[in-house]
From TrEMBL:
<keyword id="KW-0540">Nuclease</keyword>
<protein>
    <submittedName>
        <fullName>Endonuclease-reverse transcriptase</fullName>
    </submittedName>
</protein>
<keyword id="KW-0378">Hydrolase</keyword>
<dbReference type="GO" id="GO:0004519">
    <property type="term" value="F:endonuclease activity"/>
</dbReference>
<keyword id="KW-0255">Endonuclease</keyword>
<dbReference type="InterPro" id="IPR036691">
    <property type="entry name" value="Endo/exonu/phosph_ase_sf"/>
</dbReference>
Length: 193
């Protein structure tokens, strides 16, 4: 895995970039930890401005965003372009609206797969009463079909209040079209003798 990573940068404690390249493809993954709802609005504005500035420097087709965005994204028809039917929440919070504003050309992949409620819950409160879906995987719409499945493993103990997110991903190689033109003449060896 270490040979695959070309570059690793951090901008602040909430934003990490990992540039991964293997053979023919280059993917740029961002690990994000966004501020919660109760943080002062100015801090959230600064975070999302920094985040948008970093993302805007990179071509859209190589970006994948994974992290705790602290965003409740509901099933509102307003977000139907970027969210599928299988979100855990019914309504969005303020962070959810901010994420949806950012993800207009992308797709929130977590909401594309119909799983049991227990596999959608990825965060649990300290008292164990509140279970929520705050971790998100955002990908370019063109590559949505490359993700086969996303679910959470509740048995893996990571010493955190979040569950381990597992994503099955299939990278596709585009086929090169055959060159059009004159084909080579076949030589018949028997006639040459």
């Amino acid at each position: 895995m270490q040979d695959d990573i070309k570059k690793y940068d951090t901008w602040n404690k909430s934003l990490v970039l990992m540039l991964r390249s293997k053979f023919f493809n280059t993917k740029q993954g961002y690990g994000v930890h966004a501020p919660t709802e109760d943080v002062v609005k100015e801090h959230k504005n600064v975070f999302y401005e920094d985040f948008n500035n970093e993302i805007s420097k990179v071509p859209r087709h190589i970006i994948k965003i994974v992290g705790d965005l602290n965003a409740k994204i509901g099933k509102e028809s307003l977000f139907r372009q970027t969210v599928d039917w299988f979100s855990l929440q019914e309504t969005s919070n303020e962070n959810g609206v901010r994420v949806m504003d950012f993800a207009t050309n992308n797709m929130v992949i977590n909401t594309c797969f119909d799983h049991k409620r227990i596999h959608k819950e990825m965060w649990i409160s300290d008292d164990g009463k509140i279970k929520d879906q705050t971790d998100r995987v955002i990908n370019d719409k063109r590559h949505t079909s490359d993700v086969i499945d996303i679910r959470h493993c509740r048995g893996a103990d990571c010493d955190t209040d979040h569950f381990l997110l597992v994503m099955k991903y299939r990278q596709r190689i585009s086929r090169i079209c055959k060159m059009k033109g004159k084909s080579r003449k076949k030589i018949q060896c028997k006639k040459a003798e």
